[in-house]
Design a protein that fits this description.
alpha+beta; DNA primase, PRIM domain; 4 domains; 4-stranded antiparallel sheet; 16 helices; 16 strands
C-alpha cells in the first residue's frame, strides 16, 4: 500500500473515531436530557412568601400549602413547574436586590394545570368557558374554580387531560396562548406571560382584603364578596388524569408550523392592495381563499378597515369590501363579530383622519411636547397623548354614575381611568403593552408640563375618576370661521 495513502487512511480513521466519540457523547447528553424531561420530575415552583415583589423561593408543589398563611397578603407562586435544575440556577442567579431569581431562566418548564384568568365578575364569562370545554368533552367536575379575591375568576384546566410535556420556557408559554386561542377561550394575557406568578388560594388580596377562595361552579352567581371574607380550605374539583384525545390533538397542533401566512407588512400590503383593487376593478374582487386563525382574521380585518378608511371609501362601500374579504376565508368570522370589528376600527379611522387635518397638524408641529414624544423610542407616550387629544369633548356632556351622582364634563375636557384608557389603547394596537402605570406616568408628565389640568373626583376608590382639562392651544381651529372638531369628525365619517 502506498505510504501516503496509508497515512490518509489512518488520518481518516482518527477523524472517524473522534466523530463517533463526539456523536456518542452527544447522544448520551440527549438521552440524559430525555430522562430529565419527564413531567413527573417537574415538581418545583417558585414561591413568593411576602407578596409578588419578594420571590425566589423554590419549594416542592406538595409543600406549598405549608406556606399558606391566612394572615399574609398577596402570597403567590409560579403556575408553571420546574425540575430540580432550577435549584442551583436560582442560587447562582441573583436579581438587582441580590435575591435568588428565576427571571432569566431558559430551561424547560411544565405545569399541573392551565390557568384561565377572567378579570370580570360576570358569571356568564365563566359559563362561556365551561360551555366551550364541555363541547370538547371536558367534564365540569374536573375543572377548579376560584374567586380571585377582588373582581374576577380563575379556572384551572388539568394538564393531564391535555397531554402537556416539558418544553423550553419560551415555547411553553407561546403554545399555551395558541392552545387557548384555538379553543376560543378568552383569558387575561398577563396570566400567560413568561414565569407569571399566580395568587395562592386562601391568601388575602392586598387591594380588597378578601381571600382568593375555591368555589363550586354552581356558586358563581352567589355573593362572593361575603364568601371571601374568610379562607375556605375545600377541594371541589375531581382529579382526572385520563387524556382527552380532542384536547390533545389541539395541543399537538400548537407545536406544528403554522400554514397561516405571517401578518407581516409585506403580506398585508399585497392582500390589502388586492382587496382595494385598482380604480378600474374595485367592484370585481377575485376569489382568493385564505386560511387564517381567529387572531389573524381579527388583525387583518382591522387593518383592512383602517386602510379602506384612509383610501377614502364611503362607509357603505368599505363595509361591503370587508364582507367580501371575510367570505374568502376558509373559516370566516360570523356577521355580528365582523360588524363589531368594523365599527371599532372605522371609528379609529375617523380619529386618524382628524389627525391628518391641516390645522391639527399645524398646531402639533408647534407643540414641543408632541415633538418630544415623537422622537422617543417609547411610543406609548405618544399614543396616550394623541388619544387624549382626539377624545376631548366637543361640547358639554352630562355623565351619570351608577351610584346616582351626575356631573358635567365640559368642552375640551375628558374623563378617564388609567386602566380603562390602557385597555382602549391596546385594542387599537397590534401589541398588548400599554398598562395603567404607563398611562399614569404620561398623564402626570402632561400635567407637570402644562398641557392638562388634572382633577380627581369621588371620595372612595370605586367612585374615583380623573378629569383632564386641556390647557394649551386650540387644536382644531384658529378662527371663528374655521370648522370645529365636531364638524371635522362628521365630515370624515361621510
Amino acid at each position: 500500500m502506498d505510504r501516503t495513502r496509508k497515512y490518509d487512511y489512518v488520518l481518516l480513521l482518527d477523524v472517524l473515531c473522534i466523530h463517533i466519540a463526539w456523536d456518542v457523547d452527544l447522544l448520551l447528553k440527549q438521552l440524559k436530557l430525555c430522562v430529565i424531561m419527564k413531567k413527573v420530575d417537574f415538581i418545583y415552583v417558585e414561591l413568593g412568601i411576602q407578596g409578588f415583589a419578594k420571590i425566589g423561593h423554590i419549594v416542592k408543589v406538595d409543600e406549598v400549602e405549608k406556606f399558606v398563611d391566612v394572615t399574609d397578603i398577596d402570597r403567590c407562586k409560579t403556575w408553571c413547574t420546574f425540575s430540580k435544575d432550577i435549584i442551583p440556577y436560582t442560587k447562582n442567579n441573583l436579581n438587582r436586590y441580590r435575591n435568588p431569581s428565576t427571571a432569566k431562566y431558559k430551561g424547560f418548564v411544565c405545569c399541573d394545570f392551565i390557568p384561565i384568568d377572567i378579570d370580570d365578575l360576570d358569571p356568564s364569562k365563566v359559563e362561556e368557558v365551561v360551555e366551550i370545554l364541555n363541547g370538547y368533552g371536558v367534564l365540569t367536575e374536573c375543572l377548579a374554580f376560584y374567586f380571585s379575591g377582588k373582581k374576577g375568576f380563575h379556572i384551572e384546566i388539568p394538564s393531564d387531560i391535555v397531554g402537556i410535556d416539558p418544553l423550553p420556557v419560551e415555547e411553553f408559554y407561546d403554545r399555551i396562548i395558541k392552545f387557548l386561542n384555538i379553543l376560543g377561550i378568552n383569558s387575561d394575557p398577563k396570566m400567560h406571560s413568561r414565569l407569571q406568578h399566580y395568587r395562592l388560594p386562601n391568601t388575602k388580596n392586598g387591594k380588597s382584603n378578601l381571600y382568593k377562595i375555591p368555589i363550586k361552579f354552581s356558586e358563581i352567581h352567589d355573593d362572593l364578596y361575603e364568601l371571601a371574607k374568610s379562607p375556605r380550605f375545600e377541594t371541589f374539583a375531581t382529579k382526572v388524569t385520563e387524556l382527552n384525545d380532542t384536547l390533545n390533538s389541539k395541543w399537538l397542533e400548537t407545536g406544528q408550523k403554522s400554514k397561516t401566512p405571517k401578518l407581516t407588512n409585506d403580506y398585508l400590503h399585497k392582500n390589502i392592495s388586492r382587496i382595494l383593487g385598482s380604480d378600474q376593478r374595485r367592484n370585481s374582487l377575485k376569489t382568493h381563499q385564505v386560511e387564517a386563525t381567529e387572531g389573524f382574521r381579527n388583525s387583518m380585518g382591522s387593518e383592512i378597515t383602517r386602510k379602506l378608511m384612509m383610501k377614502g371609501f364611503k362607509m357603505k362601500n368599505a363595509k361591503k369590501k370587508l364582507v367580501e374579504w371575510n367570505k374568502e376565508l376558509v373559516s370566516p368570522l360570523d356577521t355580528s363579530e365582523l360588524m363589531k370589528l368594523f365599527k371599532s376600527n372605522w371609528s379609529y379611522g375617523i380619529d386618524f383622519k382628524l389627525f391628518q387635518t391641516k390645522q391639527f397638524r399645524a398646531n402639533l408641529r408647534e407643540d414641543i411636547i408632541f415633538q418630544d414624544y415623537l422622537r422617543r423610542e417609547d411610543k406609548d407616550f405618544l399614543a396616550v397623548y394623541v388619544y387624549l387629544l382626539l377624545n376631548l369633548n366637543d361640547e358639554d356632556k352630562e355623565f351619570e354614575f351608577s351610584w346616582g351622582e351626575t356631573i358635567i364634563i365640559k368642552q375640551d375636557q375628558i374623563m378617564i381611568g388609567y386602566k380603562t384608557l390602557a385597555e382602549k389603547l391596546n385594542l387599537k394596537s397590534k401589541y398588548d403593552k400599554v398598562n395603567k402605570s404607563k398611562v399614569r406616568t404620561v398623564v402626570n408628565d402632561l400635567v407637570e408640563k402644562g398641557r392638562f389640568i388634572k382633577e380627581v373626583i369621588g371620595i372612595i376608590p370605586i367612585q374615583k375618576r380623573i378629569i383632564l382639562t386641556w390647557d394649551h392651544f386650540c387644536f382644531t381651529h384658529t378662527s371663528d370661521t374655521s370648522p370645529s372638531r365636531g364638524e371635522v369628525v362628521e365630515e370624515c365619517a361621510q
